[in-house]
Amino acid sequence: MTGTFFDTIIICTMTGLALILTGAWQSDLSGAAMTTYAFATGLNAQTIGPMLVSIGLMFFAFTTILGWNYYGERCMVFLFGTKAVLPYKIVFIGLIASGAFLHLDLIWIIADIVNGLMAIPNLIGLVALRHVVVEETKQYFAARYQYSEAEAQVQ
Question: Where in the cell is it found (predicted)?
Answer without folding.
Answer: Cell membrane
